[in-house]
Amino acid sequence: MSTAAAGRIVVVGNGIAGLTAADTLREAGFDGDLTIVGDEPHPAYSRPALSKALLRDRNAGTAHELPPAGHGATELLGVRATRLDLDRRLVALDDGTDLPYDRLVLATGSRARRLSGLPGEATLRGLDDAVALRDRLASAPTVVVIGGGPLGMEIASACVGSGCRTTLVSQGTPLTHQLGPHLAGVFVSAALASGLTLVRTGTAARIDGTTDAGRVVLDSGEAVEAELIVSAVGDIPNTEWLADTGLTANGAVPVDVRGLARPDVAAVGDLAAFPTPHGVRRVPLWSSAIEQARTAARALLHGDQAPPLRFQPYFWTEQFGLSLKAAGRLPTAGEPAYLEGEPGGGPALMRWSHADGSATAAALGLRVPVPRLRRMTEPTT
């Protein structure tokens, strides 16, 4: 029996990382017993769509759906992994069963970081969160969104688009940390022109309340009140169930250049920290999860004969009437060279050159294929 065909593989996690790993295992020749465990009752779906089309458009009921899976795995949905026994090669589930494996893919992702334990603090991480938040926006409540990253800005955009009087509380200027000052300025200008109220705070805000969240307290002591408070302040990898394994470090699962934590265990997606030119780190992006999963699945079958990960950063967002696709290192510094369009926030194709010879390319409001953007990040001769 070939290495690819032998044994049983369990994939714990049914997000895009787990789905891609399962598909890739089949493509790479694994025809053995394949099982996927997912803690949500839903089939795998597009998480980026939750804060974009699904949240802002009540008629976009299928925007999050992915094509039917073709991996033919046994899917155990609505159950959660609670413990991993590496010696016995068993995954314990919260329904009381133990799932044996020969090789294992860890893809349990992450959850929304919260600022309080109050039931009134809404977050957006899963499909149920998005549907519940969209339903609440239908009555056009006053809203405070905490967090000036891409998710917070996308949520704020949907709130404004739903007719809500919306305030965004951000540490500094939104999106600067993620995109750099130039692109951040373009999006902030569009947000303010759309009616968003921006409140900057020097340190993290806190949510005050008893049974319901109604006040966001700033570092100055001032408070912003609203009928709905949504926090978008980062994520926490779901690694607690791995606490006794020795696989975790600094809240994540470190892996090698092929996505392996050990020869029989791969880790992919938001819980994995992999080597990058800037150190071992998590890169919790949709495109990163897909590329990690493709590499790690092949390495799980073929070891060092599988090619290592060659991660190419890619990011996109849609908010306040603007769309952005960017390839290469972010955030950028300084002003870009304009290959198409011109300064002012209109459609443009931009490029930033870096001291190491690499580059970042960004398309604002233009339909530029991702391969073309990535070619533009290569050093010029």
Short description:
The chain has eight helices and 27 strands. Helix 1 (16-27) runs parallel beside helix 7 (286-302). It is an alpha/beta fold.
In total, the number of strands is 27
Tell me the domain tally.
3
Distance between the termini: 49 Å
Instruction: Give the overall pLDDT as a whole number.
Output: 92
Shape: globular
Approximately how much beta-strand content do the residues carry?
A: 25-35%
Assign a percent range to the helix content.
10-25%
- Ranges where pLDDT stays below 50 over 5 or more residues in a row are none
Give a quick account of the main beta sheet: strands, pairing sense, barrel closure: 6 strands, mixed
Q: Do you know the CATH topology of the largest domain?
A: FAD/NAD(P)-binding domain
**Name of the CATH architecture of the largest domain:** 3-Layer(bba) Sandwich
**Structural class computed from helices and strand pairing:** alpha/beta
Strand order of the largest sheet: 3-2-1-7-20-19
Tell me the radius of gyration: 22 Å
- Any idea what the CATH superfamily of the largest domain is called? FAD/NAD(P)-binding domain
Number of helices: 8
